[in-house]
Write a structure and sequence with these properties.
single chain, alpha/beta, 2 domains, seven-stranded mixed β-sheet, 13 helices
């Protein structure tokens, strides 16, 4: 549902029926109530943090729900909304303190604007949200990271490959979900070197930590290779309305590889259309967040034959691939998306972020099951103590215990085959 009066969606799943309810809270910065937050934890037990009672825990997600990145932005919430909708309908989750709670999710639209994400954080504090999770975007998540640390407010499983969120700095209750930008860029570089053929690479990157991280990972991977030459690098600002000039300039270099570190959905689609219109058929690398067949490639008119090859560094199964829909976990995922995601059209496969959000919800559930006190500190300790957790769709187990690493760490190079992606070892 959309609550246009406040400018954000707020979904709260009812305890016994999994029914979506609206909850609009007042404004103003809230202080934790004396004696806990309705948890009834007296007699020397830990005082409950804001946002958790004996019956519920409230999560907040600030992410772009409108604007150019609304497609993936909505997905960052929808997977978790669907997952916890199912769990709530089953009666809730038994936490490590022995109490069974349902999970309420409140979403806040930041429009991929850092200033709005700061305002959203302040509203989450006012709304007595327990923790922020799963939000999309590097600049938007960075914008309120320090404020969250000052508040002792967890900012976890964020959908950015910025390694700062997994640095385990003192005073920060944060953790990344997805592999780092450097790791994804490095996976492509390693596969290109493994090809054993000479390549000329043109690089287009977003002029921020996102684009620079992908590019640096790629450069580190090809360092020392005599066969790989970067012939030109161009950057762009995330606010750009068109990158046609950059694409034309890069095509003129004669490069046979285009390293395309672009995060904005409309720009990514337009770029691929321009590359094809120029008759350029490079080997193409796409970041995982702008490599979706349904959300990017199909709208751009890309088929398996449009370019020499389209590659991405993936870490989870693609919902658009037939094996996903045929699996029991995939069927459950699509059924949950259909039942619990309301207020906008969502098929659960146009953008991979929906699957990533589902994975994030499974990780959160594991933390809830192991947190022994109704506090943010106990939650964060449980969250960062997970090892060997098997989730439905990732390529490897979850390990949150590794210093400097996000929750998801196993990355596979994938090649687009016209319908979805298949894992490969080398480019070629």
């Amino acid at each position: 549902m959309i609550t246009t009066a406040t400018g954000r969606r707020m979904l709260a799943f009812a305890a016994s029926a999994g029914v979506v309810a609206l909850a609009i809270t007042g404004c103003g910065r809230a202080e934790p109530p004396a004696g806990g937050n309705g948890g009834g934890n007296g007699g020397g037990a830990a005082e409950a943090s804001p946002g958790i009672t004996d019956d519920t825990l409230t999560l907040g997600i600030t992410t772009p729900l409108t604007g150019a990145t609304a497609g993936p932005g909505n997905c960052t919430a929808d997977g978790a909304i669907a997952y916890f909708g199912v769990r709530n309908a089953e009666g809730g989750i038994e936490f490590g303190d022995g109490k069974t709670r349902t999970i309420e999710i409140k979403t806040y639209d930041d429009e991929y604007n850092p200033e709005k994400s700061v305002t959203n954080f302040q509203q989450m504090v006012s709304d007595e949200v327990f923790a922020g999770a799963l939000g999309l975007g590097t600049p938007t998540n960075r914008a309120w990271r320090d404020a969250a640390a000052e508040e002792g407010f967890p900012q976890v499983l964020v959908m950015t490959g910025d390694p700062v969120f997994s640095s385990r700095e003192d005073g920060y209750l944060d953790l990344g979900l997805v592999p780092s930008y450097q790791q994804e860029g490095g996976a492509f570089g390693e596969a290109l070197v493994a090809d054993g053929q000479p390549h000329k690479v043109a690089v287009l990157f977003q002029n921020d930590d996102y684009g620079k991280g992908y590019t640096q990972g790629f450069k580190d991977a090809i360092e020392g290779s005599d066969d790989i030459e970067i012939v030109k690098e161009l950057s762009y600002e995330p606010t750009a309305s068109s990158l046609e000039g950059q694409i034309t300039e890069l095509q003129a270099t004669g490069a046979d590889v285009l390293f395309h570190a672009v995060s904005v959905t409309p720009l990514a689609i337009a770029d691929l259309q321009k590359v094809a219109a120029l008759g350029w058929k490079p080997i193409l690398f796409l970041p995982s967040n702008t490599a979706s067949p349904g959300g990017i490639l199909t709208p751009a008119g890309v088929t398996a034959d449009t370019f020499t090859g389209v590659y991405a560094a993936g870490f989870a199964q693609a919902a658009a691939a037939p094996p996903f829909a045929e699996s029991e976990a995939g069927k459950a995922y699509f059924a949950a998306i259909e039942q619990y995601v309301t207020g906008h059209e969502q098929d659960g496969k146009a953008f991979p972020h929906c699957v990533w959000s589902w994975t994030g919800a499974q990780i959160l559930e594991e933390a809830f099951k192991n947190m022994e006190e109704p506090t943010r500190e106990s939650f964060y300790e449980a969250l960062t103590s997970i090892s060997g957790l098997e989730t439905d769709f990732t390529f490897g187990p979850i390990d949150t215990t590794v210093e400097g690493s996000p929750a998801v760490q196993v990355v596979e190079l994938q090649k687009f085959n016209g319908n979805g992606y298949a894992n490969v070892q080398v480019v070629g």
